[in-house]
Amino acid sequence: TTQPVVNIKRAAYAMATADGQSAEITMYGDIYEQQPTDWWGDPVEGQFITLSEFLDDLGQITTCKDITIRMNSYGGDAGASNMIHNRLRELARNGTKLTCIVDGVAMSGGSLIMCACDTVKVNPSSLVMIHKCWTPIRGALNADELRKAAEANDAWDKSQVAIYKRKTGLSETVLLHMMGDTTYMTGKEAIEKGFANELLDDAE
């Protein structure tokens, strides 16, 4: 049987496979549950990867044995990033070989998706950033409501720690400290900490 040729081009990402065996996903944008809108409900200009569209498109290349993700993402929505991470891990469990190449940055939600890949390749100048979740608080809240919001953020932080721990083998305590400090890592530092596996260096 001939494998389908997939060539999807969206504003902030592309997915392509020529032979049905290996596919490349380019993720150059921020990750959102839905297309962000302004105060008036009009779509905001920008490079956005939206969850449902991305997962629909991913469904077209799930038969591929090899998927490479080329990444340049400042992150975005924690829930959407977590979901994409989990769907990629499902593919990995079913035998798909996942590789991430950090062409630019993998920050926040981008770093969660990066950590779904068993092989992460970074450039010396790549940047990986991990941090604790934050929530915009609007209006006047009492102490109980603020504690509730903080507890929700703690839960999100724990879910992210689980992702980083699986990838790096670092302890929860170390990871929470790193996230609390908003840690930026160069390619070399990301390898030292276990977030990445291979440094793409210029030939000597």
What does this structure look like?
With 204 residues, the chain is α/β, with parallel strands linked by helices. It has six helices and eleven strands. The chain has helices spanning 51-58, 78-93, 109-114, 143-168, 172-180, 187-192, and strands at 6-9, 13-17, 22-28, 30-32, 48-50, 66-73, 97-107, 119-122, 127-130, 183-186, 198-199. Strands 1, 2, 3, 6, 7, 8, 9, 10 and 11 form a nine-stranded mixed sheet that branches. A two-stranded parallel ribbon has the order 4-5. A hairpin with a 3-residue loop joins β1 and β2 (13-17). α2 runs parallel beside α4 (143-168) and α4 crosses α5. The longest helix has 26 residues, at 143-168. It is globular, with a radius of gyration of 18 Å. The model has no long low-confidence stretch (mean pLDDT 90).
